[in-house]
Amino acid sequence: MSGAVGNNLLLQYCFSRARVEHKRRINSSISIWRSTFFHPQASSLTHQPPLSTQLHGQRLTVKENILRMGKQRAVTRSSQAVLTTDQSSQLVEKFSLDGNVELQVDVSSPTSGSVAVVNIQVISSGDSLLLHWGAVKPQNKNWILPPRRPVGTMVYQNQALRSPFVKSGSNAVLKLEIDDPEIQALEFLIYDESQNKWYKNNGGNIRVNLPARESRTISASVPEDLVQIQAYMRWERKGKQIYTPEQEQEEYEAARLELLEEIARGSSIQDLRTKLKSKDDTSENKEKKFSGTKSNIPDELVQIQAYVRWEKAGKPNYSPEQQLKEFEEARKELQAELDKGSSLEDIQTKISKGEIKTQVARQLEKKKFFMRERIQRKERDVMQLLTKFSSEPKEQKDSSEAQVLSAVQQFVREKENDIADPVLSKKTYKLADKELQVLVAKPPGKTKVYLTTDLPESAVLHWALSEIPGQWAAPPLSVLPADSVSLDKAAETKFSTYSVDNQPYKVQSIEITVDDQEFVGMPFVLFADGKWINNSGSDFYIDFRAESTKVQKKDVGDGRGTAKSLLDKIAELESEAQKSFMHRFNIAADLMEEATNAGELGLAAILVWMRFMAIRQLIWNKNYNVKPREISKAQDRLTDLLQDVYRSHPHYREISRMIMSTVGRGGEGDVGQRIRDEILVVQRNNDCKGGMMEEWHQKLHNNTSPDDVVICQALIDYIKSDFDIRNYWKTLNDNGITKERLLSYDRAVHSGADLEAAIANCMGYKAEGEGFMVGVQINPVPGLPSGFQELLQFILVNIEDKNVEALLEGLLEAREELRPLLSQSNERLRDLLFLDIALDSTVRTAVERGYEELSDAGPEKIMNFISLVVENLALSVENNEDLIYCLKGWNLALTMLKSSDDHWALFAKSVLDRTRLALASKAESFHQLLQPSAEYLGALLGVDQGAVDIFTEEIIRGGSAASLSSLLNRLDPILRQTANLGSWQVISPVEAIGYVVVVDELLSVQNKSFSKPTILVAKSVRGEEEIPDGAVAVLTPDMPDVLSHVSVRARNSKVVCFANEGKLLLLKPSLQIEMQEDGLESLADTKIVSSEPPVALVRKQFTGRYAIRSEEFTSDMVGAKSRNIAHLKVKVPSWIKVPTSVALPFGVFETVLSDDVNEVVATKLQVLMTKLDGGDFSALGEIRDTVLELSAPPQLVRELKDVMQQSAMPWPGDEGSERWEQAWMAIKKVWASKWNERAYFSIRKVKLDHDYLCMAVLVQEIINADYAFVIHTTNPSSGDSSEIYAEVVKGLGETLVGAYPGRALSFVCKKNDLNSPQVLGYPSKPVGLYIKRSMIFRSDSNGEDLEGYAGAGLYDSVPMDEEEELVLDYSSDPLIVDNNFRSSILSSIARAGSAIEDIYGSAQDVEGVVKDGEIYVVQTRPQM
């Protein structure tokens, strides 16, 4: 209870103003103590002046402004009691709440005093009722909150009170006392927490009028010390609650009114004093503890020592008894020093230096000070989280060629390309406006040094070799180049001059080869134009001992998909960067402009480099002394630039955040810097130089806590004791650090996730205590939302809670509150970003800690966790539209669950599947962006290959996406069981036996032939692949639609759609997969016999017509698709719409190709056909591209225009020549699809003559559909002919039959009850396709109407215009949320399928759309 009655009172017992020399410094520290000693939060959260207390002798006494709550203010005024004189008769009101639950309210006013008593009783109530209430005054529009409240009352958002009922048998009772005569009525609601249910009065508040009371005034005054004591008693009675400053003032006034009432009843001031003192037994006992203590120690020093003890104990939340004990222990410690002969001045000095020996253990117990219940989250429109930016190309042109290279750079690059040996290092030195580049290579048994400069004057190299680093020793004569002179301890060699192609200036260069002997390096300086040139006052030095930072050129790769030139530059600068963090951060800052100009790939290069540093794949410090503050400034500079990128380039915000979280905050105000300084002092005092201790100190730059100072000292004590581990643990334990505490640390290089430091940096703090905190001052970030500080306090209090759900809600609420500030101009944007990064990271750790909480949890709790983590992801990434709609889906699923909707689990499963797709998509985008840069730079810098291989994976695992995936895996089996989905979906119900082969993608083996019966286990099945020869089953964790091409092909080919590498399996279709592994060899080792029936193609001839109307469709001119549409148009019921169609018949393609205008194209195609016949399948793509070069004969254009106009179809050319060209291109793409890989290999598989395949083109006007559907009038999964199966998607049907991830809405419907469709699964497809009014050109080959061969779907249908891809929101789709609408639409689809089956007399495969509730059928074919 910080700033509340209890703490202020108890602080009076423990502290008085310091009047010692440290008064000015310590007072601010005590201010922090006031905020944290009894209120363990970040010291940044409260700015309170020191308390005013006074000690009388050795006895602590409360005095004066003891009750200063919130801001310091004097409470010294005389008040008059307001009393009621008229007695009102008792009023009784009754309300019927719900069923058997009744409410009775009794209102009475006593004969004396002004207190009206309201007794509320709920009959047949639940166990956890709350009264949500307030009072009504005539002059107030809003509720007022009376200060006199029942025990346990909480203030709700400063707008209402919530008081708990007391259980009495089957009833619940509550007594209210209202002492304000101006209050006319009470208004309230009753809330049942256990059922999450509100009880209201006909939808409104329940109102109870209070009896009218006349007031009279009695002039009376109550001494302030009695008011203070009464306030303390009230606080104790109410369970020592946590009060806001406003509540504290209300409590103070309520205490005053209570005493005034006692006076009004006849009590004297002395009576009150006696009564209060007798009640305050606890306080008397506390005082007695001190009254017997004799000491000559001034209380000011005791106060300071008590603060030191508290700080060393970890600033715990002490109880009042513990506080008093601590004060007494501090006095004893100082008395011991006095007994040893120390003077008070000596003691004062020792306190300031922290030399007083203290025996205190660091406190680890749970800290509570803020709230008992969850925060109340604000209602927000989820769509406000939406961020969409146009995507930038992931491929960047190699800017190395466009980059203007200096003569030195060009010469060295050419030299480097000629070197076949590993490069040890490459470094550039600035020589005023000139430069020197040093390249070191490592051939076997030797070291080669190449030095190149563009100095205009002739230069001489003055150099030596070193047996120990920095030593000057004369090089052996055998290694001296030509034009060299051997000197004492050195040699001199003249540079040779070279011309460089396309460069106006020449360069000078030297090549030196040193045998691998005892030499470890090479010092040197230059002499030119009569001057010595050195490295900023020191010698240049080349280290031969560095490991190769570059593998052979052939192993590096071409850097495709990266900012190659930037990565090359980073690799060149690595030898300089590895000196220290200061060097690395400054170099990164220097490269930020180039990285930003290079786009997302440039920033990816910086991220990869910083990440390699963070995971210790690069050297942190290489024998270079640098001040920690210089590191901090460099870090500050880099993060400032990243802040600017975040502000000015919104589409780079996500990757900017990732870099910032890797680098850390930096800045001179960083508390971590103070800790590092303190550790550095310990190291210097103990002569710790270089090695592990220096690297560890630099590591602390990225992740620090005050415990690190103790750990550093413990390590030194361990070393000094000849590695006696007992000394290590003794130092730790003496300072309150246990093994358990050490095990709780996370030592990853990740200061961006340091939540407490991030909060402190944003909320501001000032500390003038001892040690590392001396002089630190940071002002609060301006413009923070109202209540944000309290929200952060709630998070800090609950940060270690085992039950993390409330913490997660607080974290997400904080991020939501913070989000608007991140897109505004703010000079402290960096601090806000690091706070948001820390909150994001804390969500992940909280979720992982909460797994145990979910072990026995029901679906609602798991789903709530999932929705919170999805929200967190949406707040962390750009282009988050898919995640936003996933979040809306989870919210809808939770609503359905709470309302006991029968379909909640089925819908939740669809949202789960979509969320998995969103995670997979995000992981893939990360991989495409980061992995090429990681592989290229990793090869250049010699990074461990294992770290490179899992680079992107580890980044993903470090975020909340991995936690979300784990939560989805927990929920999936629950949803499957609840929705009776089973573990597998059987797409093709046949039995198979074969050998298991595992592949990543079915697409990768669709052209392969297996010699043995093979069960393919494919990680990815998109839906449009061909099933390869020899495959008898395809098993996949992917989600192809039951009516996708691959599913149709599987059923037609009698291929079952299930896994165990290298083992034989017997597959039997059922809800579960049966696996049999023994005794199958004889069955499996049989010759593969093609499952395809024998079929034949008949070549079609050109009939002399380029275009025909639907009335003219015959089997000689068009395929079954066109003929079926023409037949349907005159047969279906009027409520089924069929679009008007025309066609380009068989033979038109061949005729166009033979036209004189296409002679060149025909010749080119003939060459490619020969190439294809020779087995070169790469010719397929070239053939398709060549077909697109065809020109349209004028006769074709005229006939097609006439036929379309006769059929009342719009002619594209009427909108301009460009529109016709679009239509012509679409026609050619249909023809070209004859040579797509899937179709070509399918034809070969059944041994059909590909030359005999003819392609007509069906032309239809596109219906801009609300929904598209595919119907199989016999259930394809079960073979049940009495049941229709259908799938529905939003938008155009291409997402259903094409390679679009996710599942469609699926349902079945009995033919004898077409009004009762049964949903099998809700949609999870994230995107839908939409198009403006346009034309579509559908393939219609003579290979689509062959009995026993599923040729449909092999060839392309091409719209004249590009479809628009939209991310779908199912949470507002009436097909999902409106049961009546869904039933109507699905029933209409089922009736259409049944009607069409009746027309043809056989099972049909029907495609159609729904527009404005009407059914359109666009094609039908026999179901295969």
The major β-sheet equals: 7 strands, mixed
- N→C terminal distance: 75 Å
Low-confidence stretches: 1-89, 281-294, 364-372, 392-402, 548-554, 667-674, 689-704, 744-753, 767-776, 1058-1066, 1068-1075, 1086-1092
CATH superfamily of the domain at 1108-1155 and 1191-1422: ATP-grasp fold, B domain
Shape: flat
- Estimated radius of gyration: 41 Å
CATH-defined architecture of the domain at 1108-1155 and 1191-1422: 2-Layer Sandwich
**Approximate helicity band:** 25-40%
Instruction: Tell me the β content.
Output: 15-25%
CATH topology grouping of the domain at 1108-1155 and 1191-1422: D-amino Acid Aminotransferase, Chain A, domain 1
The chain-level structural class is alpha+beta
Mean pLDDT: 77
Q: Looking across the biggest beta sheet, what order are the strands in? A: 34-46-45-37-38-39-40
Supply the CATH class of the domain at 1108-1155 and 1191-1422. Alpha Beta
Number of strands: 46
The helix count comes to: 43
How are the SSEs ordered, and which strands pair?
Elements: H1 5-14, H2 23-36, E1 55-56, E2 59-60, E3 81-84, E4 91-98, E5 101-108, E6 116-123, E7 129-136, E8 154-156, E9 160-164, E10 166-168, E11 171-178, E12 185-192, E13 197-199, E14 206-209, E15 215-218, H3 224-237, H4 245-264, H5 269-279, H6 281-291, H7 299-312, H8 320-339, H9 344-353, H10 407-418, E16 423-431, E17 434-441, E18 446-453, E19 459-463, E20 484-487, E21 490-494, E22 496-498, E23 507-515, E24 521-528, E25 531-533, E26 540-543, H11 553-556, H12 564-577, H13 581-597, H14 600-614, H15 628-648, H16 653-663, H17 671-685, H18 691-699, H19 707-720, H20 725-734, H21 739-743, H22 755-763, E27 765-767, E28 776-778, H23 788-797, H24 805-822, H25 829-849, H26 859-876, H27 881-898, H28 904-941, H29 945-949, H30 951-957, H31 960-978, E29 992-1001, E30 1009-1020, E31 1029-1035, H32 1045-1052, E32 1064-1067, H33 1081-1084, E33 1108-1109, H34 1120-1131, E34 1136-1137, E35 1141-1144, H35 1148-1154, H36 1159-1173, H37 1179-1187, H38 1194-1206, H39 1217-1232, H40 1237-1245, E36 1255-1261, E37 1267-1272, E38 1283-1290, H41 1294-1297, E39 1305-1310, ...
Parallel strand pairs: 29-30, 30-31, 34-46
Antiparallel strand pairs: 1-2, 3-15, 4-5, 5-6, 6-11, 7-9, 7-12, 8-9, 10-11, 12-13, 12-14, 16-17, 17-18, 18-23, 19-21, 19-24, 20-21, 22-23, 24-25, 24-26, 27-28, 29-32, 33-35, 35-36, 36-42, 37-38, 37-45, 38-39, 39-40, 41-44, 42-43, 45-46
